[in-house]
Amino acid sequence: MSNAVAEKKKPGFAAGAANYLDERVGAGGILKEFGRKVFPDHWSFMLGEVALYSFVVLLLSGTFLTFFYQPSMEFVIYDGSYGPLKGTEMSIAYASSLDISFDVRGGLLMRQVHHWSALLFVAASGLHMLRVFFTGAFRKPREINWLVGFMLFVLGMAAGFTGYSLPDDLLSGNGLRIIDGMIKGIPVIGAYGSSLLFGGEFPGEYIVARLYGLHILLVPALILIFIAIHLFMVVIHKHTHYSGPGRTDSNVVGYPLMPVYVAKAGGFFFIVFGVIMLISATFTINPIWNYGPYDPSPVSAGTQPDWYIGWLDGALRLAPSHWEFVAFGGTWSMNILIPMIVGIGFLVIVAAYPFIEAWVTQDKREHHVLDRPRNAPTRTGIGAAGVTFYAVLWAGAATDLIATNFKVSLNQVLTSMQILLIVGPIVAYIITKRACLALQRKDREIVLHGRETGRIVRLPHGEYLEVHEPLGEFEQWKLIDFKDYQPTLARPNSKGKITINARIRAAVSRIYFEDRIIPVTQTELDAARHDHPEAIEAPVEQEAKQITQ
Amino acid sequence: MAFKRNRRSPLAAIIVMAAGLALTGGGYAAATSAVEAAKPVSAIATAEQVTEGKKLFAANCASCHGKKGEGSSGSNVVPSLIGVGAASVDFQVATGRMPGQASGPQLEKKKPQFTAEQISQMAAYVASLGEGPAIPTDAMVAADGDSANGNTLFRINCAMCHNAVGAGGALTHGKWAPALDGVEARHVYEAMLTGPQNMPVFNDANLSPKDKKDIITYLKYVEETPSMGGYELASLGPVVEGLFTWVFILGFIIAITIWLGAKSN
């Protein structure tokens, strides 16, 4: 029987390829299964891909750079091609970075490729995380993958920071000095931690080689492992999709990996690679020759970290400098400690959010259909608050540039940002939540009464009506397919006691779901269809009555 | 043969061209030397210049700085100009900062209000009030020093306010260190010498005239050398690079993803 079936079916490209490998490594089954994986089509699902591809570009360009870079802090007298540094004493690390820029063929392009793709890697990861957050893609069963992705974002920052310090120019050295200061700001262990990292007093003679080891071995290896886990889990969970007719929590609607997505994703890789090359060939990034060799005394104006560390730099800048006191025979630098605690706290909340929301909703169902952000108003509001908080800290790293370019006082910029850091997220939360609820109301209105066409019809007895056009099935589905949550009540447990946990959850649940728009039900829909002409006429009559009274 | 007689000598074109070149070249040289001569390079002023300068001063400066440049220390502090020297006047007036339009944390650079001759007259008058730094000669500010030494000195002394390549930076309470791109070498020298507005003085004991010349050489190198790595994004460092990444690179790539994700019609 089975033979007969096999003869009837002509093996496709995927099956053929699987057969070749199957006979040799026995992986055919897996490949066949893998080749038939279905992925939905949407632009926002490609953001993670951009991060992945920029990581590949990072590996390629980084390997090129290791051929020429020397992680040594020994001193040399520079004798390369860049005139204004000739005869200047500097570390071998800086001299070799200058040689890559000026004396190695294609070296400057590769440095720029490496740096631009690093910025893009973290930016694309961040944007991908925002997409996952605002569409609720982190819900069961994907909470762990959210954590893996979060680790990738943090590792991206770590990879960036360790790499930023390698050229040993003045800019990166100042960045390291800030890290040194932050470590020393930790009570009790700070000074030990700093001399452990730097092998003595800052800057020492070891830090560049140590950061190099981390930058080319440990951090990329961890990133690779986490990428593997991340993608493996995408395969296990299958991809999420946006709501639409026929799309449910138990299926995926899209195209198969083989051959559609292999071609599409492969092509997209070359597009991303091409964009990075184009930018790197036309725009300068990190012109290290301008900054000069590192020396702990000078700090030039406009010293900033790369963008992904900017929010932490901003936190340090925004902390009032007088939060420092002397007690128990030591200086307690609260102006360093509190920004560090705030930064770590922010990251912890980001990592824990899926678990917090699951605890509030007590929703144990699997979710494969994504939320439209407006259909989860509180989550979207919290997300907007988080984005605002991060953005203010981020802008805080650029206070000096804001002051000079907009011709305002640096001190006023700082004070405004300190206020904005507290007030901004609250305002963003309220406005976003209200906007979501308003949009939901608008959706409801459209589903029940149809779209306004702007066509005015005059009836025989002189009355004017605007014709409302009912929605198509496909469009309507998008507007009504979302889940309704209700505030949970604090109920007694099996022992008949209402626990504190239950009380807190009830309170948070009330914040989440007190104001909500219920999805349109079938009954409402039927009623609206049935009464459609009346639904239009009714308000007109009411208005008329009001006027005559 | 008539053709041949009428024909010009083969040397005619060359002679005409040479004469033309000599004329334009010589004329240009004469004109530039005339301009050079008009430049305020002389430290010794004539009595006539001082008299003219006094008139200009009384008409344009005395209302704030006092009839004799003594300044005022009342509720509205105006610096005394006795002993500030010709260099100070040349810097402040030739960059348009003086006469100031409005009081504020710092005076803005603007179009100069006076001609070079008038400025040199005012400078001569102010220099006659008390001894002060003189206007540097062209040889002192020529960008032919040691750019590597200038780079090191600039990094140690200037970059903390003016940024590593002189793109400018912020100071406290609305003050700022201006960008140095396009600033005349003479004005850079005078600024170091006199410490205008919020800038500290770098006198000759602090930075020797050779050091100052080296710094100018470095700044002119940065100004005149085209960027090695492509467009410089205003030389403002990582903030602009980050902004560029988010707005342009990611923006461009998102546009591509939308194109790729669009349903084919």
From TrEMBL, chain A:
It holds the Pfam family Cytochrom_B_N_2. This is Unannotated protein. InterPro entries: Cyt_b/b6_N, Cytb/b6-like_sf, Di-haem_cyt_TM. Signal peptide: none annotated. Its main location: membrane. The chain crosses the membrane at residues 50-69, 113-134, 146-166, 212-236, 268-289, 336-360, 381-403, 415-432. PANTHER family: CYTOCHROME B.
From TrEMBL, chain B:
Its EC number is 7.1.1.8. Its main location: membrane. Gene3D superfamilies: Cytochrome c-like domain. This is Cytochrome bc1 complex cytochrome c subunit. It is a multi-pass membrane protein. The chain crosses the membrane at residues 243-262. GO terms for cellular component: plasma membrane.
